[in-house]
């Protein structure tokens, strides 16, 4: 089959892919976006939308309250011996990824991007000065400008290094709490530490709550390597979680899971000429709640450089200089939280520490594209 030519080809239609597509369309440039899934779907994600995420969504007129997003005001760090609560130092929302990602793809299509659903890229190969992407259904697309935005899934031949904080397994489940439990959670995101990992709990739209957690492989193995064994373990070691979830109704047949997450990965200057975006470029530990912002930011910054006529390498170096130190700090903190949860007690002694950490582990304000 003759390849279909595209000025810019975006592989992956999550936040990073949609963002670069929207930016290119806004500048009147042609873009084809290939997305593996057929329709809206759930993703392993805590679904906390930080100020930086909100900033980039507003850039493309995504109306979060109209989509049902919930406004969050405070963060609660739940330790074995007490709870530390701080007001969030910035505006924040929560919204399920199935709604958010779909809204962005719809915006991209309305802006003129050719959005191809049910189009999983199986191979990406150089072809002269361009690249050829082969899709599972037999079609192929050719472009000199490839934006790689496949999130946690590496394309064959483009594996990312393992990251500096390895071996964590992620689980996500939606629940419906009792009215009393829901009221106690309020408009807060809770970060709950337990031996062997940590969990995030927050309300999302339609009266649901999102429980998203990370656990070490060793800890998971010790409870039988399954969810049925993990839940009682969590309740035993984090009584707060038991209080929140006792009697709550699980809303998915089984939790969503992800493993081999390369936390701490920061893409080096790419010599392959590809534009690595989102999780393909940088993977920040989940407790920061800024991975989506990085995905959107990387899409916007990549488009900015592309439109200036820069090479992908220039973009990749800029992203690294903006995020590298913050990502390294967040990764060290994540390692410490899992290895020595007791050390987090320091947050009880230093007022405002949570807010300070939150500010130091996100995209600096000065780096955001206005
Ligand atoms: C446990 C956990 C909790 C998290 N919590 C938060 C949080 O609360 N807040 C936050 O901001 N961030 C959070 N994150 C991070 C955030 O989810 C990611 O950083 C973000 O989704 C990355 O966006 P992306 O566009 O790079 O990838 P994705 O959103 O994963 O999108 C990639 C897209 O590419 C598609 N795709 C994959 N392979 C192919 C292929 N071969 N061909 C075509 N399409 C393909 C996929 O279907 C997908 O739609 C969390 C992450 C984890 C693991």
From TrEMBL:
Short name of one Pfam family for this protein?
FAD_binding_3
Organism domain of life: Bacteria
MF terms from GO for this chain are:
FAD binding
Instruction: Give the FAD-binding domain ranges.
Output: 6-139
Q: What is the protein's given name?
A: Dehydrogenase (Flavoprotein)
